[in-house]
């Protein structure tokens, strides 16, 4: 058992949750992505600024403003908005969140660490009041996120989200996977600015019945001393995606002490990687 319920959260408990917003023009988005990936297209390799994405594909600004007002009327305050207009971060009392999304909020005790956290007793339901603008609720997961857990404790795959098979179908390499091409003999190099762990990957493997070589982690300079904690999720996702796409591939993880998104710094690190320099 990954957790133990120790009671109902106090009604006044303040929580932050995420709301996934309803996008626009999915066909247009698919066409744009196809053109960006097509070498024969004038748009090949182009990018779209976050605000430009929001204007074309995100929830329109009038609906977002109306949603913010509706949430305020229900006792929830929007604490962060994004230019892509694909999500909101919302803060509110447990009583208001539970009432609005049809859930009971429990206090749970993590079985491994003993840490207490608040989780929903069931999947939140988007009410009709919000359904024209909101498609999902995040931040009320039943399990506490851990940097490393025993693979034997791996939770069942989530009902939502992409599984390895979905990835193969989305990127049209399912035929290769079905024919036994699993990346064996190939090497994938990843430049990471956050910390992932073998334990995290082992849990992912256990959840989806995968296996493959243990990633080789190579420090550039001082490695990841002082890496920000919020980079860890992206780092774990990097290795999980490679494992899902090519389970048999050798994974080289280059870990850098540089924690900046400045193009010059990243280009410098990529040059180091390509030259095989580890210091």
Topology:
Blueprint: E1 3-8, E2 14-21, H1 26-36, H2 50-57, H3 61-73, E3 77-81, E4 87-93, H4 94-101, E5 105-110, E6 116-120, E7 134-138, H5 164-170, H6 174-178, E8 187-192, H7 198-208, E9 216-220, H8 232-245, E10 250-256, H9 263-275
Structure description:
This protein has 279 residues and is α+β, with helices and mostly antiparallel strands. Helices cover 32% and strands 22% of the residues. The chain is built from nine helices and ten strands. A four-stranded antiparallel sheet has the order 3-4-2-7. A three-stranded antiparallel sheet has the order 1-5-6. Strands 8-10-9 form a three-stranded parallel sheet, with helices on both faces. A hairpin with a 5-residue loop joins strand 3 and strand 4 (87-93). Residues 259-265 have low confidence and may be disordered.
């Amino acid at each position: 058992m990954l957790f133990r319920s120790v009671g109902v959260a106090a009604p006044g408990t303040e929580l932050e949750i995420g709301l996934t917003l309803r996008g626009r023009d999915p066909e247009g988005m698919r066409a744009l992505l196809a053109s960006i990936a097509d070498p024969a297209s004038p748009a090949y390799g182009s990018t779209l600024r976050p605000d430009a994405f929001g204007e074309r594909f995100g929830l329109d600004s009038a609906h977002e403003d109306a949603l913010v007002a509706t949430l305020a009327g229900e006792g929830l305050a929007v604490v962060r908005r994004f230019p892509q207009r694909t999500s909101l971060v919302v803060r509110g009392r447990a009583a208001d969140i539970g009432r609005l999304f049809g859930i009971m909020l429990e206090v749970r005790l993590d079985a491994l660490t003993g840490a207490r956290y608040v989780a929903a007793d069931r999947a939140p339901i988007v009410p009709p009041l919000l359904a024209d603008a909101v498609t999902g609720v995040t931040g009320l997961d039943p399990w506490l996120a851990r940097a490393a857990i025993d693979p034997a404790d791996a939770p069942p795959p989530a009902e939502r989200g992409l599984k390895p098979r979905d990835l193969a179908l989305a990127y049209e390499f399912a035929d290769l996977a079905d024919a036994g091409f699993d990346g064996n003999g190939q090497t994938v190099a990843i430049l990471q600015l956050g910390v992932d762990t073998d334990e995290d990957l082992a849990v992912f493997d256990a959840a989806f019945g995968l296996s493959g070589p243990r990633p080789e982690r190579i420090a550039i300079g001082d490695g990841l001393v002082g890496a920000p904690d919020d980079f860890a999720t992206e780092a774990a996702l990097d290795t999980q995606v490679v494992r899902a796409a090519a389970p048999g591939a050798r994974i080289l993880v280059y870990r850098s002490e540089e924690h900046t998104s400045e193009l010059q710094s990243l280009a410098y690190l990529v040059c180091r990687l390509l030259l095989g320099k580890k210091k």
